[in-house]
Design goal:
heterodimer; A: alpha+beta; two-stranded antiparallel ribbon; 6 strands; about 35% strand; B: mainly alpha; Serine Threonine Protein Phosphatase 5, Tetratricopeptide repeat; about 75% helix
Chain lengths: ~120, ~400
């Protein structure tokens, strides 16, 4: 069963990473996820200031705006999609993720399965 | 015969969930089996092993259902493969007789990924064998609201794939308190609303857990606590009667004896847990002939242990009251005043009531009246208010 781990960075430090954990922590975690054979995909996202929002109005015109900017405290900083047997296993991987520490959080969402 | 069904329902359901991996299917065929039994048993007689009969009947219904619905069967087959992947060893035989899979179901129903109110509802429904209208009545919510809540919880179990498993030894310290909390909140709901049947349901569930996890001392502690508090039900009456005013002759001595034996289990062989300590405090109250005879130094010591395990302003309040009983009103009042700025206690009427009582003992009557009025404003139920009015007049 596939789950997406949405990694919300809490406070962001000057280098754009979460303040509570080091690059080494992330590398170690990433290595664990790969070596356990559960990784489907995963990316970390570039800084929020580089984001652009697109909407298409009723008239079919596209509206492109800069942002969004972090109004809420939770900013999506990256994600993993993992394939594990059940929610408990997914919650374990979420708890081990450096992004879950300090003011960060990881939201675990099952990936909808329309095939079965 | 209804008694047989209530006893067997949780076990039947748990075994079916384990076998077929789906709570909805398990519930459906379990209730079909019960319906068949209700028509057959009065004619054919109750079979020698009613549980096995129900299980066989339910399993046949499930197999029939899966033959008719291939897509559903395939989906469940996938689920089972995944379950094997997660938990390759079959369920541990928790008793020495038939394997009992209710413990798995307890952990699923109390899973932290479910909202707290849903955990309680599911546990009553799946393990206590209550129907949805019965659960709704117990919590004084419309049946429709409760049905939605249960449907939502089952949907999450199914779609997010909350597993049916007993957490491993490493996870157990994190997960067991959640299961105990569900049983405890069923009890406190019954206690607060003077609904004995709900409190008794909680005791029944705690007994099942105790049998399933004989080595877990906090389970013994929880059962002890429930018994030792429930033992005073007759003396509490329908109105609020405080411990000090209760007719102790009405206390259930057999229940107190059972609870006290369990307290010993809960407190022997390692660091005590919060339920064990609370049970020990309840036991000291239950063993005392009256308020003066109560072992207050021991109660103060236990509240200090509890405060270290479970730092909470309400525990600190209880400790302050016990200190007042041990050392006098002045000492207790000093501790209460230290808690004056706590936001939780400021709107918690027992805090104002305790302050009022101590102020009155010290002869500070106008301050006491003020505190009683404050408590009266905060009190939640009519019986609590009536009690405070009597105090204010007295």
């Amino acid at each position: 069963m596939k789950y997406m781990l949405l990694i919300n960075a809490g406070s962001i430090d000057a280098s754009g990473g979460a303040a509570e954990c080091s690059v080494e922590d992330w590398m170690a975690y990433d290595k664990d996820v790969r070596e356990a054979g559960v990784l489907v995909s995963g990316e970390s996202l570039a800084d929020l200031v580089t984001a652009t929002t697109v909407r298409v109005g009723e008239d079919g015109k596209r509206l492109v705006t800069d942002g969004p900017f972090a109004e809420s405290r939770e900013v999506l900083g990256g994600f993993y999609v993992i394939d594990v047997p059940d929610l408990d296993a997914a919650l374990d991987w979420a708890a081990r993720c450096p992004g879950a520490r300090g003011s960060g959080s990881v939201v675990v969402r099952p990936v909808a399965d329309f095939g079965a | 015969m209804a008694g047989v069904f209530r006893e067997e329902h949780g076990r039947l359901l748990a075994a079916l969930v384990r076998r077929f991996g789906d709570l909805d299917l398990a519930e459906e065929v379990a209730s079909e089996a019960v319906e068949i039994a209700l028509t057959r048993w009065p004619v054919d007689g109750v079979p020698p092993n009613p549980g096995a009969w129900l299980m066989t009947t339910a399993r046949r219904r499930a197999v029939d259902r899966l033959r008719r619905d291939r897509a559903y069967a395939e989906r469940l087959a996938v689920l089972r493969v995944e379950a094997e992947r997660a938990d390759p060893a079959p369920a541990a035989d928790v008793g020495d007789g038939l394997p009992d899979e209710r413990l798995q179901l307890f952990f699923t129903c109390a899973h932290p990924a479910l909202p707290a109110e849903d955990r309680v509802a599911l546990t009553l429904r799946c393990l206590a064998g209550m129907t949805t209208p019965e659960v709704a009545r117990a919590f004084l919510v419309p049946v429709e609201t409760m049905a939605k809540r249960i449907t939502r919880a089952k949907k999450k179990i199914r779609e997010a794939r909350i597993p049916f498993r007993v957490p491993g030894a490493d996870e157990l310290p994190e997960r067991l308190p959640g299961v105990l909390q569900v049983v405890y909140s069923i009890f406190t709901e019954g206690y607060a609303a003077h609904r004995s049947e709900l409190a008794e349901e909680a005791i029944r569930l705690a007994r099942i857990l105790r049998a399933l996890m004989p080595a877990e001392r906090e389970v013994a502690g929880l059962l002890a606590l429930l018994l030792l508090v429930h033992a005073r039900r007759e003396a509490r009456g329908d109105e609020l009667v405080l411990l000090e005013e209760q007719d102790r002759a009405l206390w259930d001595r057999a229940m107190i004896a059972e609870g006290t034996r369990l307290v010993e289990v809960a407190l022997t062989g390692g660091r005590p847990g919060p339920y064990g300590v609370q049970a020990a405090i309840a036991a000291l109250h239950d063993e005392a002939a009256d308020l003066a005879d109560t072992d207050w130094p021991q109660i103060v010591a236990l509240y200090e242990v509890l405060l270290a395990l479970l730092p909470s302003p309400v525990v600190a309040l209880n400790r302050a009251v016990a200190v007042a009983m041990r050392d006098g009103a002045e000492a207790g009042l000093a501790l209460l005043d230290e808690l004056a700025d706590d936001p939780q206690l400021r709107s918690y009427h027992p805090y104002s009531t305790a302050r009022a009582e101590l102020l009155r003992l010290l002869g500070r009557d106008s301050e006491a009246a003020l505190a009683f009025r404050r408590a009266l404003e905060l009190a939640g139920t009519e019986s609590e208010r009536a009690h405070l009015r009597r105090k204010l007049e007295g």
